[in-house]
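Co-fold these.
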Amino acid sequence: MSPGERLINAITLEYYQRIGILEKNAAPLHTTATERGETMGNRLEEFREYRTRMNDRIFKIDHLGIKRFFNLDTTAYNDGALDGKTKELLGLAASAVLRCNDCIDYHLLQCVEAGWKDEELYDALNVSLIVGGSIVIPHLRHAVETIDLLRAEKAGSE
Amino acid sequence: MSPGERLINAITLEYYQRIGILEKNAAPLHTTATERGETMGNRLEEFREYRTRMNDRIFKIDHLGIKRFFNLDTTAYNDGALDGKTKELLGLAASAVLRCNDCIDYHLLQCVEAGWKDEELYDALNVSLIVGGSIVIPHLRHAVETIDLLRAEKAGSE
Amino acid sequence: MSPGERLINAITLEYYQRIGILEKNAAPLHTTATERGETMGNRLEEFREYRTRMNDRIFKIDHLGIKRFFNLDTTAYNDGALDGKTKELLGLAASAVLRCNDCIDYHLLQCVEAGWKDEELYDALNVSLIVGGSIVIPHLRHAVETIDLLRAEKAGSE
Amino acid sequence: MSPGERLINAITLEYYQRIGILEKNAAPLHTTATERGETMGNRLEEFREYRTRMNDRIFKIDHLGIKRFFNLDTTAYNDGALDGKTKELLGLAASAVLRCNDCIDYHLLQCVEAGWKDEELYDALNVSLIVGGSIVIPHLRHAVETIDLLRAEKAGSE
Amino acid sequence: MSPGERLINAITLEYYQRIGILEKNAAPLHTTATERGETMGNRLEEFREYRTRMNDRIFKIDHLGIKRFFNLDTTAYNDGALDGKTKELLGLAASAVLRCNDCIDYHLLQCVEAGWKDEELYDALNVSLIVGGSIVIPHLRHAVETIDLLRAEKAGSE
Amino acid sequence: MSPGERLINAITLEYYQRIGILEKNAAPLHTTATERGETMGNRLEEFREYRTRMNDRIFKIDHLGIKRFFNLDTTAYNDGALDGKTKELLGLAASAVLRCNDCIDYHLLQCVEAGWKDEELYDALNVSLIVGGSIVIPHLRHAVETIDLLRAEKAGSE
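Predicted complex below.
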């Protein structure tokens, strides 16, 4: 966590405590696993923490339309006529051509969880590369790094 | 074929004959199956004919980079770490979120050929709808109509 | 309706009757008001008819996720913290920068219904033009023509 | 011009006359060169006519921001640090990756006018194809057909 | 400010001084409020400073077309047929569906300044979420965090 | 390099060594020139290093389709009907309207290498600004900063 990020945390922590979203004695937001004394931590973990924190914040907003959309988004990847595993791969391919790194990371997490192997993920990313062109390349780099980080995490936790 | 389209054909036919792409006695371009006295014809057939004609035209241009890209595009959907059937579905999902009707039609042709069932195609399109939002809806309408036309064609040819 | 469109209607009508979506004695799909002997008919009416027909078709598919999304899409423009009138204008601005003519037409129908005046719609479209650039211009042309058609319809029906 | 388009013209013509945009005895809108007894006419001519008619209509709206943007858009392709010819090619490449057929047609008209040769235009389109991927292919087909129509027109008028 | 950013500043500062854009004794670029001994500072402030610095730099380039576009962009949100407040909300909705965090932040600054309340901003963002789909979610998270930072700033400055 | 980035490096370094991509005694990834005791280093250098490292990683994946696409991408900018210098400018204009900072940086590196002058690059970016609208402005800021960094590097190395 950079000094700038630490500062954002300090500001929003105080604000969130004031408006009652967080307990007065809450731990600083955004502390990485490393700062909390754990051994494994990287940009994926920061992504997960940020995602969880902001999803919680959005949930607190209590906008019925937004909450229903989040719910619909989750159920779209459940088993149906297609199984969930296949649909996560569709989500990955769609995210890659739309060039959204956070979405790519999210679907890679789900794809690895669902059992897709690296070679299969590369083959799916190749489809996105051909459909979307060289403008996808920076996101291909990001995706390949994310796959490596996921495998490194897994290897580290075994 | 509308009068306007017939006119385009007349113009380009003459031009193509002059530059030697078509024989002097070539049939008018773009005639639909119906006009040629066949019983089945619809926008899918026009799409196939236009696609074939222009791909031939592009091939005649003989630009090495373009030809290689077309080749790479074809091989991307061959069996590999993922089978071709799965990759066609990825191509469909990517085309739908990028909102390209011609690409959707092309991948639907391939998907039906590869054996995907209607319910599975709808489930894939639902993923694209959730990822891409309501701006995808006009393309969902188009895709569902294309699936119906493909099934009607198949039923008609049996 | 062009001969080609008439043909599509004939094919899909027969198919829809066979699979039970339409009555055996249903009127041909896609007939315009003019063909049915009415005095007013234009591309807006064709758009409305196509939209209604395909939405009905999609509803028959009975995919829970798709139906819920359609429902969520409708409720997003209901009065809430912002009134529905304002939200229709947001939908128009978003559709224009995303360059979707069908979406522009739909939101213009709703905007005129909600009481936005032409000068206000032009001012909203100007924001979309500045945000989205000259690539939006063909859609600005389409939008201005749609506004004219809507006003002409209204004048004709008074 | 299809019957449907003829109808739109009739409706908008009447409306435009009523609001004073067109003279009472104006020729029907959208008549093609062919219908006016001229020998050459195609989708390019329809595009030019529609573009001119709607640009006139938009000019009549008299929105200062829109008019200034149109002006800025025109001057962007004037000779400057780069000559106008080069900038038209940039406009073509940008239009192709953004997948806008009308914009592609407009810039192709300007590029041919500026003296770019077919092989040079194909080479520029190849860059757009590589940058934008297979989703650009339908627009590549359109662009190549437009180049052929432009050359056929030129050959016909010589 | 991270060490990397500090380095960029040092390099560009030196360069800007050499080409005469900055005084020899100018303060280092990009110093945050915190580093200058002020109490409030966060990513919004960094965004404002970077935006101001680069807009100044672009202004120095003195390209007539770019300067006119910047001017047109500013005036597009002035009161007109629609009031400026409404147009800022349109700018926000358009920025969200086009998925540009910097543009979202800029329009949120303006929207809060114009008096839109949090619940109204969430309702506008919901329209963007429905129109643009789940690919908008990372930008929704960013937007909600920005709203919180803006409110925290305001609370801190009272 | 921030502490977080250092951590990613440590993790992936270890992982890459384990899977045999890097030697056991390899230098830490991502060290900037500054950290290696060199005098010039900035975000461009980090971009170049990251780009090289991940391209190497992707090359190791050995996916035939991906490798061929990378090859095709490189050759697209070679001299052909258009010279390579012109095609790099097309790549820049396309990258700017597609709003990809990494792609903009890459093509700016190539454009400066090819001999384009600052005023010419600004004129090309102005075309992208007009075509793509205000949503391009954050990328215009980025591009102008990159040009300054490139000139500062060059001045520093002379």
